[in-house]
Amino acid sequence: MEQTAAQSKIRKASRWFIPIAALFAFFAWFYISPPGLLGKADAIGYAVCHRISERSLHIGDRQLPLCVRCTGEFNAAAISLIFFAFASGKKSGFPNWKLGAPLILFFLAFGFDGVNSYIYLLKQTSSAAFKDIPTLYTPNATLRLLTGSGMGITLASILFPAFNQTAWKTVDLERALNWKKLVTLIAIIALVDLLILTESPFILYPVAILSVLGVLALLTTVFTMIWMMAMRQENTFQRLTEMKLPFLAGLTLALTMITAIDLLRFNLTGTWGGFPLN
Prior knowledge:
This protein has helices at residues 2-32, 37-45, 68-87, 97-125, 141-167, 179-197, 201-230, 244-269, and strands spanning 58-59, 62-63, 91-93, 172-175. By secondary structure, the chain is mostly helical.
């Protein structure tokens, strides 16, 4: 009884505390981040990506907020979450082992190409000690984009049903992903990737914004789930409109984490650019 009363008091206090904390988190991040829309996008990408110029796409001389691999990953994750929101609703079942196989392949391809690319980078930029480390192939932007996109699909395919299992009072046990949806999603993202590879500014500008929104969406979703579990609110919601406070808490935690990483990294490197290669 006392525990229930304490939880009730905490929830009432959070109605005031969370909006105030959200304002502080937003203005702190806004204050430290570079000026301009793409500057703010850079500050989000800066928290999750190495942002090495040679591994990034450019609009003229302007580097995108995320490297090519991360652009593919978070752009695909954003598209996938939007797709699932319309196509799967409250479905909370995880992929079965047959559907899991291509997702595992996406994950392995992401890791394999990433390791090969990193070793290649070491051979290019480090001492002669790394010259003899073998690489299977020369990395390129196309492979980075495609493997990143596959990882984005995988992340969204796991996170979306996990969120539904955590949030909704009435859980739909049907699988959120099936073969038709997976093929459709792959086709949509493959088309977007082809457009990205044209490197047209008309494509890269919206992709730059969508990719960093993908970062925010993934982090906010994860932190919203953590908040629900910490406040013992899991499986208590029936509509999205009831979740304004948990989502705001999730966004606040996401911005707080981004700001902390930004400050730490900027203090270490002294630049909003990529990690030094030498």
